[in-house]
Amino acid sequence: MSIQIEGVHKSFGNTRVLHDINLDLPSGQLVGLLGPSGSGKTTLLRIIAGLEHANGGRIRFNDSDVTDLHARDRKVGFVFQNYALFRHMTVFDNIAFGLTIMPKAERPSRADIKRRVGELLEMIQLSHVADRFPAQLSGGQRQRVALARSLAVEPRVLLLDEPFGALDAQVRKELRRWLRRLHDELHFTSIFVTHDQEEALDVSDQVVVMSQGKVEQIGSPDDIWQQPASRFVLEFLGEVN
Ligand code: ADP
After folding, report:
1. Which of 24, 54, 197, 224 has the most crowded CB, counting CB atoms within 10 A?
2. In sequence order, what are the beta bridge partners of 208?
3. Cα–Cα distance between 187 and 92 in angstroms, integer?
4. Cβ atoms within 10 A of the Cβ of 12, count?
5. Which residue numbers delimit the ABC transporter domain (predicted)?
6. Is the CB of 14 under 6 A from ligand 1?
7. Which band of pLDDT confidence, cut at 50, 70 and 90, is reported for residue 151?
8. Is 197 touching ligand 1 by the criterion CB < 6 Å?
Protein backbone atom coordinates (compact mmCIF):
# COMPACT_ATOMS: atom_id res chain seq x y z
CA MET A 1 0.00 0.00 0.00
CA SER A 2 1.61 3.28 -1.05
CA ILE A 3 0.83 6.37 1.02
CA GLN A 4 0.39 9.86 -0.40
CA ILE A 5 0.26 12.88 1.86
CA GLU A 6 -0.71 16.08 0.07
CA GLY A 7 -0.64 19.55 1.56
CA VAL A 8 -1.48 18.38 5.08
CA HIS A 9 -1.48 21.07 7.73
CA LYS A 10 -2.63 21.09 11.33
CA SER A 11 -2.97 23.60 14.14
CA PHE A 12 -3.88 23.17 17.77
CA GLY A 13 -5.51 26.47 18.76
CA ASN A 14 -3.28 29.18 17.33
CA THR A 15 -0.23 26.98 17.13
CA ARG A 16 0.53 25.48 13.77
CA VAL A 17 2.23 22.12 14.33
CA LEU A 18 2.29 20.85 10.72
CA HIS A 19 2.96 23.09 7.71
CA ASP A 20 2.04 21.84 4.27
CA ILE A 21 3.39 18.28 4.47
CA ASN A 22 3.82 16.48 1.15
CA LEU A 23 5.13 12.91 1.04
CA ASP A 24 4.85 10.04 -1.40
CA LEU A 25 5.80 6.77 0.27
CA PRO A 26 6.05 3.73 -2.00
CA SER A 27 4.40 0.46 -1.09
CA GLY A 28 6.33 -2.03 1.00
CA GLN A 29 8.81 0.38 2.53
CA LEU A 30 9.86 0.69 6.15
CA VAL A 31 9.94 4.44 6.72
CA GLY A 32 11.55 6.12 9.72
CA LEU A 33 9.96 9.43 10.74
CA LEU A 34 12.79 11.13 12.59
CA GLY A 35 12.96 14.44 14.42
CA PRO A 36 13.36 16.07 17.80
CA SER A 37 10.58 16.12 20.35
CA GLY A 38 7.79 18.53 19.34
CA SER A 39 8.57 18.45 15.60
CA GLY A 40 5.11 17.05 14.76
CA LYS A 41 5.91 13.36 14.16
CA THR A 42 3.19 11.89 16.35
CA THR A 43 0.59 14.32 15.03
CA LEU A 44 1.42 13.35 11.44
CA LEU A 45 1.30 9.65 12.31
CA ARG A 46 -2.09 10.09 14.01
CA ILE A 47 -3.43 11.94 10.95
CA ILE A 48 -2.28 9.09 8.69
CA ALA A 49 -3.99 6.66 11.09
CA GLY A 50 -7.23 8.63 11.09
CA LEU A 51 -7.03 9.23 14.86
CA GLU A 52 -6.61 12.95 14.29
CA HIS A 53 -7.97 15.15 11.53
CA ALA A 54 -5.90 17.65 9.58
CA ASN A 55 -7.15 21.18 8.98
CA GLY A 56 -6.45 20.73 5.29
CA GLY A 57 -4.83 18.44 2.77
CA ARG A 58 -5.50 14.88 1.67
CA ILE A 59 -4.29 11.41 2.65
CA ARG A 60 -4.39 8.66 0.03
CA PHE A 61 -3.61 4.95 0.26
CA ASN A 62 -2.74 3.52 -3.18
CA ASP A 63 -4.08 6.77 -4.66
CA SER A 64 -7.48 6.22 -3.09
CA ASP A 65 -8.62 9.06 -0.84
CA VAL A 66 -8.98 7.97 2.81
CA THR A 67 -9.04 11.47 4.32
CA ASP A 68 -12.64 11.16 5.47
CA LEU A 69 -12.46 7.50 6.50
CA HIS A 70 -12.54 6.45 10.15
CA ALA A 71 -9.42 4.86 11.62
CA ARG A 72 -11.10 1.45 11.73
CA ASP A 73 -11.88 1.61 8.01
CA ARG A 74 -8.32 2.45 6.99
CA LYS A 75 -7.02 -1.02 7.91
CA VAL A 76 -3.99 0.25 9.75
CA GLY A 77 -2.21 -1.50 12.61
CA PHE A 78 -0.60 0.34 15.52
CA VAL A 79 2.15 -0.23 17.99
CA PHE A 80 2.71 2.35 20.71
CA GLN A 81 5.46 2.62 23.28
CA ASN A 82 3.08 1.93 26.11
CA TYR A 83 0.63 -0.14 24.18
CA ALA A 84 0.01 -2.50 27.03
CA LEU A 85 -0.94 -6.08 26.36
CA PHE A 86 -4.04 -7.38 28.10
CA ARG A 87 -2.73 -8.59 31.44
CA HIS A 88 -5.44 -11.15 32.04
CA MET A 89 -4.99 -12.80 28.64
CA THR A 90 -2.34 -15.29 27.56
CA VAL A 91 0.14 -14.43 24.83
CA PHE A 92 -1.90 -16.52 22.40
CA ASP A 93 -5.15 -14.73 23.27
CA ASN A 94 -3.48 -11.32 23.08
CA ILE A 95 -2.35 -12.01 19.51
CA ALA A 96 -5.71 -13.52 18.57
CA PHE A 97 -7.69 -10.62 20.05
CA GLY A 98 -8.09 -8.50 16.90
CA LEU A 99 -9.30 -11.53 14.97
CA THR A 100 -11.85 -12.57 17.59
CA ILE A 101 -13.55 -9.14 17.60
CA MET A 102 -13.95 -8.93 13.81
CA PRO A 103 -17.53 -8.70 12.56
CA LYS A 104 -18.99 -12.17 12.33
CA ALA A 105 -19.13 -12.19 8.55
CA GLU A 106 -15.38 -11.50 8.28
CA ARG A 107 -14.17 -13.40 11.35
CA PRO A 108 -11.91 -16.37 10.56
CA SER A 109 -12.88 -19.78 11.91
CA ARG A 110 -11.38 -20.99 15.20
CA ALA A 111 -9.03 -23.27 13.27
CA ASP A 112 -7.88 -20.41 11.05
CA ILE A 113 -7.28 -18.15 14.06
CA LYS A 114 -5.22 -20.91 15.66
CA ARG A 115 -3.15 -21.34 12.52
CA ARG A 116 -2.61 -17.61 11.99
CA VAL A 117 -1.57 -17.00 15.61
CA GLY A 118 0.65 -20.09 15.48
CA GLU A 119 2.45 -18.73 12.41
CA LEU A 120 2.99 -15.35 14.03
CA LEU A 121 4.27 -16.97 17.23
CA GLU A 122 6.74 -18.92 15.15
CA MET A 123 7.89 -15.80 13.33
CA ILE A 124 8.61 -14.00 16.59
CA GLN A 125 10.06 -17.22 18.02
CA LEU A 126 7.80 -17.21 21.04
CA SER A 127 5.74 -20.37 20.44
CA HIS A 128 7.03 -21.74 23.73
CA VAL A 129 5.40 -18.95 25.76
CA ALA A 130 1.98 -19.02 24.05
CA ASP A 131 0.21 -19.94 27.30
CA ARG A 132 2.02 -17.48 29.54
CA PHE A 133 0.72 -14.12 30.68
CA PRO A 134 2.43 -10.80 29.83
CA ALA A 135 3.79 -10.36 33.35
CA GLN A 136 5.84 -13.52 32.84
CA LEU A 137 7.67 -12.07 29.81
CA SER A 138 10.61 -9.69 29.43
CA GLY A 139 9.98 -6.18 28.05
CA GLY A 140 11.46 -7.15 24.69
CA GLN A 141 9.31 -10.28 24.46
CA ARG A 142 6.23 -8.23 25.28
CA GLN A 143 6.93 -5.81 22.44
CA ARG A 144 7.41 -8.74 20.06
CA VAL A 145 3.96 -9.95 21.13
CA ALA A 146 2.60 -6.41 20.60
CA LEU A 147 4.06 -6.43 17.09
CA ALA A 148 2.51 -9.83 16.34
CA ARG A 149 -0.82 -8.68 17.76
CA SER A 150 -0.92 -5.65 15.47
CA LEU A 151 -0.11 -7.85 12.47
CA ALA A 152 -2.66 -10.59 13.14
CA VAL A 153 -5.40 -8.75 11.27
CA GLU A 154 -3.11 -8.28 8.25
CA PRO A 155 -3.09 -4.48 8.19
CA ARG A 156 -2.18 -2.77 4.94
CA VAL A 157 -0.19 -0.20 6.84
CA LEU A 158 1.56 -0.51 10.20
CA LEU A 159 2.18 2.66 12.22
CA LEU A 160 4.54 2.61 15.17
CA ASP A 161 4.98 5.50 17.61
CA GLU A 162 8.31 5.27 19.46
CA PRO A 163 7.60 1.55 19.71
CA PHE A 164 10.74 0.56 21.56
CA GLY A 165 11.47 3.79 23.39
CA ALA A 166 11.06 2.50 26.91
CA LEU A 167 13.54 -0.37 26.54
CA ASP A 168 17.30 -0.49 26.91
CA ALA A 169 19.60 0.02 23.93
CA GLN A 170 20.44 -3.64 23.34
CA VAL A 171 16.81 -4.78 23.43
CA ARG A 172 15.81 -1.89 21.16
CA LYS A 173 18.36 -2.96 18.63
CA GLU A 174 17.07 -6.52 18.72
CA LEU A 175 13.47 -5.33 18.28
CA ARG A 176 14.44 -3.26 15.24
CA ARG A 177 15.71 -6.48 13.67
CA TRP A 178 12.38 -8.16 14.48
CA LEU A 179 10.46 -5.33 12.89
CA ARG A 180 12.66 -5.55 9.78
CA ARG A 181 12.24 -9.30 9.58
CA LEU A 182 8.44 -9.23 9.97
CA HIS A 183 8.28 -6.39 7.49
CA ASP A 184 10.24 -8.35 4.89
CA GLU A 185 8.25 -11.54 5.41
CA LEU A 186 4.76 -10.05 5.49
CA HIS A 187 5.16 -7.20 2.98
CA PHE A 188 3.30 -4.30 4.53
CA THR A 189 4.13 -0.59 4.50
CA SER A 190 5.26 0.82 7.82
CA ILE A 191 6.08 4.16 9.31
CA PHE A 192 7.78 4.34 12.67
CA VAL A 193 8.32 7.47 14.68
CA THR A 194 11.57 7.95 16.52
CA HIS A 195 13.71 10.78 17.89
CA ASP A 196 16.73 8.46 17.80
CA GLN A 197 18.97 9.02 14.76
CA GLU A 198 20.65 5.64 15.05
CA GLU A 199 17.31 3.85 15.24
CA ALA A 200 16.02 5.56 12.09
CA LEU A 201 19.21 5.09 10.07
CA ASP A 202 19.67 1.47 11.14
CA VAL A 203 16.63 -0.25 9.63
CA SER A 204 14.66 2.17 7.43
CA ASP A 205 14.41 2.03 3.66
CA GLN A 206 13.71 5.74 3.76
CA VAL A 207 14.07 8.34 6.46
CA VAL A 208 11.88 11.44 6.71
CA VAL A 209 13.56 14.10 8.85
CA MET A 210 11.18 16.60 10.46
CA SER A 211 11.75 19.85 12.25
CA GLN A 212 9.18 22.37 13.51
CA GLY A 213 6.28 20.85 11.60
CA LYS A 214 8.10 20.64 8.26
CA VAL A 215 9.89 17.94 6.31
CA GLU A 216 13.57 18.87 6.25
CA GLN A 217 14.76 15.96 4.14
CA ILE A 218 13.65 12.61 2.80
CA GLY A 219 16.03 9.96 1.52
CA SER A 220 17.74 6.65 2.11
CA PRO A 221 19.79 6.37 5.30
CA ASP A 222 22.94 6.68 3.14
CA ASP A 223 21.68 9.85 1.45
CA ILE A 224 20.76 11.43 4.74
CA TRP A 225 24.02 10.49 6.36
CA GLN A 226 26.26 11.44 3.44
CA GLN A 227 24.39 14.46 2.13
CA PRO A 228 22.44 16.20 4.86
CA ALA A 229 20.22 18.73 3.08
CA SER A 230 20.45 21.45 5.69
CA ARG A 231 22.40 22.63 8.66
CA PHE A 232 19.58 21.37 10.87
CA VAL A 233 19.91 17.79 9.56
CA LEU A 234 23.70 17.90 9.87
CA GLU A 235 23.55 19.09 13.46
CA PHE A 236 20.71 16.77 14.43
CA LEU A 237 22.59 13.74 13.09
CA GLY A 238 25.60 14.79 15.10
CA GLU A 239 23.71 14.74 18.38
CA VAL A 240 24.05 11.66 20.49
CA ASN A 241 21.06 10.55 22.53
P1 ADP B 1 6.62 14.86 18.25
O2 ADP B 1 5.92 13.56 18.05
O3 ADP B 1 7.59 15.18 17.16
O4 ADP B 1 7.24 14.98 19.62
P5 ADP B 1 3.96 16.02 18.42
O6 ADP B 1 3.28 15.75 17.13
O7 ADP B 1 3.66 15.15 19.58
O8 ADP B 1 5.55 16.04 18.15
O9 ADP B 1 3.69 17.51 18.86
C10 ADP B 1 3.90 18.64 18.00
C11 ADP B 1 3.43 19.90 18.71
O12 ADP B 1 2.02 19.84 18.84
C13 ADP B 1 3.98 20.04 20.13
O14 ADP B 1 4.27 21.40 20.32
C15 ADP B 1 2.83 19.59 21.00
O16 ADP B 1 2.87 20.24 22.23
C17 ADP B 1 1.63 19.99 20.19
N18 ADP B 1 0.46 19.12 20.41
C19 ADP B 1 0.39 17.80 20.11
N20 ADP B 1 -0.84 17.29 20.41
C21 ADP B 1 -1.57 18.33 20.91
C22 ADP B 1 -2.91 18.48 21.38
N23 ADP B 1 -3.76 17.45 21.41
N24 ADP B 1 -3.31 19.71 21.82
C25 ADP B 1 -2.45 20.75 21.77
N26 ADP B 1 -1.17 20.70 21.33
C27 ADP B 1 -0.73 19.51 20.90
Report:
1. 224
2. 33, 218
3. 23
4. 11
5. 3-237
6. no
7. very high
8. no
